[in-house]
């Protein structure tokens, strides 16, 4: 599994490992029906901090805004539990493995239909997963490389044959990248004809569907009348993109939005003190850090990267930026299964930082751009603190406030030196690549002995921590605010939220 490298640094260690359901027994779950709205269409108005970048194709997604849409329109064979540390039935109502753990058999849930009313078949699952593991445009192939073959003996059964036992299989099948599309549509996503117009239209088995979207416009999600858990209580979700944190909060307070995400930590308490509004921090697998482009001199020097880490006062940032609602980050993975709590991280030590820098390629000082997404209060405040702190090392930080889409394009192209971000745990774009470490991650993913795997992941975390392609800062929760008549909104352990659980009261 291509994990702690240049693009997908902890997908193997976190997504495919934190979920302890990777070794769970077969499960069953009965469908429950939610009541539909009793009078008039119920519309939920949401303001998000960024608009999608990737197409609405599960295995082509490499940005969080699209991911959040995907989990509402496409189902996977299994789903993550709300705490983000296990799996539960999704499109598969039960599953079992052979004695040698090489063949897994999944039984599909009865009566599942796509949003257009067509029935879900085993062939749809095989076509979609084949695209995820082998499609030309798939960004997630490495997560499925242990799969040798996927077949559908009949419309209700899917068999997955592995080349060797693979402990994270169930967790991988619960990832958003394994969303199921109709077979013909799944195969079409790799063709030249599948342009941006088609890419924004969905036909899934999830609670909602999209009839299309144009960048700059709000996204409209419509309730799927054929949803296997019953038609959602909210008939339509209208999502507009407001990058500025304070503007989103004002729209919530004024009643223009029913729900907003990424509420600044400094405003949580104040919002809860206002009539008609609620706000909360949810516990999720998320970290805040600075991405360092290790291909840009002098950031290609290990001692420079370590010096920046030691010169960063994490406690000060946690106190002033996150108002104490964060925890010191000691490892490249969040606090979940196989997280090594004994790793030291990089405690604040300015003298050690100065010594390392004096021995490095940055000893004579250097200028470094820090690209900050406009409107993000936490990132902006962090950048200001680091500019002052790193000046003590002779580093001149050039803070560049740019549109989110520009920052995203730049770090994909490698056109940056540093940028603050909060990831749950997806691509880090550091361009750090250690073939030996990649091999260790692959071996850990294939190890069946739990204690041995834990020891292997501890070693992996230490190697990545020592390499310092990030400036490790803190473990964060996810924040959101909503009007008091909105009920059931929840951000789960992997930062997903599903509108199927939301109701709007009178």
Can you describe this structure?
This protein has 506 residues and is of the alpha+beta class. Helix content is 27%, strand content 23%. It has helices at residues 11-15, 64-73, 122-134, 169-173, 183-188, 196-199, 245-253, 268-272, 302-310, 314-320, 350-358, 377-391, 404-413, 435-446, 450-467, and strands at 43-48, 78-80, 87-89, 92-97, 103-108, 147-154, 157-162, 208-210, 219-223, 236-241, 259-261, 277-292, 326-328, 366-373, 395-402, 418-423, 470-483, 486-487, 503-504. A hairpin with an 8-residue loop joins strand 8 (208-210) and strand 9. It is globular and about 65 Å long.
Number of strands: 19
Mean pLDDT: 89
- Helix content range: 25-40%
Shape: globular
**Poorly predicted runs:** 1-38
How many DSSP H or I helices? Answer: 15
Distance between the terminal alpha carbons, to the nearest Å?
49 Å
What is the radius of gyration computed over CA atoms, rounded to a whole number of angstroms?
23 Å
Q: Characterize the biggest β-sheet.
A: 9 strands, mixed
- Category from helices, strands and their pairing: alpha+beta
Q: Strand share of the residues?
A: 15-25%
Short description:
This protein has 15 helices and 19 strands. The protein has 506 residues and is of the alpha+beta class. Residues 1-38 have low confidence and may be disordered.
List keywords for this structure.
506 residues, alpha+beta, nine-stranded mixed beta sheet, four-stranded antiparallel beta sheet, 15 helices, 19 strands, 27% helix, 23% strand, disordered N terminus
């Amino acid at each position: 599994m291509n994990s702690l490298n240049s693009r997908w640094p902890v997908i193997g260690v976190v997504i495919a490992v934190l979920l302890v359901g990777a070794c769970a027994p077969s499960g069953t779950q009965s469908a429950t029906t939610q009541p539909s709205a009793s009078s008039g269409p119920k519309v939920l108005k949401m303001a998000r901090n960024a608009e999608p970048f990737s197409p609405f194709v599960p295995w082509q997604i490499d940005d969080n805004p699209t991911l959040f849409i995907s989990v509402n329109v496409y189902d996977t064979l299994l789903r993550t539990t709300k705490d983000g540390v296990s799996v539960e039935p999704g499109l598969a109502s039960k599953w079992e493995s052979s004695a040698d753990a090489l063949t897994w058999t999944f039984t599909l849930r009865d009566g599942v239909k796509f949003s257009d009313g067509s029935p879900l078949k085993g062939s749809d699952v095989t076509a979609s997963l084949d695209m995820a593991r082998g499609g030309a445009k798939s960004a997630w192939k490495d997560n499925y490389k242990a799969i040798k073959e996927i077949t559908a003996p009949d419309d209700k059964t899917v068999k997955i044959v592995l080349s060797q036992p693979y402990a994270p299989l169930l967790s991988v099948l619960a990832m958003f990248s394994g969303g199921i599309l109709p077979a013909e549509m799944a195969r079409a996503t790799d063709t030249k004809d599948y342009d941006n117009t088609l890419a924004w239209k969905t036909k899934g088995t999830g609670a909602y569907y999209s009839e299309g979207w144009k960048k700059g416009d709000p996204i409209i999600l419509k309730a799927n009348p054929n949803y296997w858990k019953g038609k959602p209580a909210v008939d339509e979700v209208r999502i507009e993109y407001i990058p500025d944190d304070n503007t989103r909060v004002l729209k919530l307070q004024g009643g223009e939005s029913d729900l907003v995400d990424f509420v600044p930590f400094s405003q949580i308490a104040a919002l809860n003190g206002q009539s008609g509004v609620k706000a909360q921090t949810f516990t999720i697998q998320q970290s805040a850090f600075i991405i360092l482009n290790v291909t840009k001199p002098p950031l290609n020097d290990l001692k420079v990267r370590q010096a920046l880490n030691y010169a960063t006062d994490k406690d000060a940032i946690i106190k002033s930026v996150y108002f104490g609602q964060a925890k010191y980050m000691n490892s490249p993975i969040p606090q979940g299964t196989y997280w090594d709590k004994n790793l030291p991280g990089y405690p604040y030590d300015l003298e050690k930082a100065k010594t390392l820098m004096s021995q490095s390629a940055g000893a004579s000082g250097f200028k470094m751009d820090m690209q900050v997404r406009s409107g993000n209060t936490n990132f902006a405040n962090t950048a200001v603190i680091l500019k002052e702190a790193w000046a003590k090392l002779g580093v001149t930080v050039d803070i560049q406030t740019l549109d989110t889409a520009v920052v995203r394009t730049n770090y994909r192209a490698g056109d940056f030196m540093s940028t603050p971000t909060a990831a749950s745990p997806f691509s880090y774009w550091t361009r750090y690549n250690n073939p030996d470490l990649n091999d260790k991650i692959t071996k850990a993913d294939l190890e069946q002995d739990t204690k041995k795997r834990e020891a292997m992941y501890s070693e992996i975390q230490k190697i990545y921590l020592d390499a310092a392609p990030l400036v490790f800062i803190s473990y964060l929760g996810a924040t959101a605010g909503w009007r008091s008549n909105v009920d059931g909104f929840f951000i789960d352990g992997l930062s997903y939220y599903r509108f199927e659980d939301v109701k709007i009261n009178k």
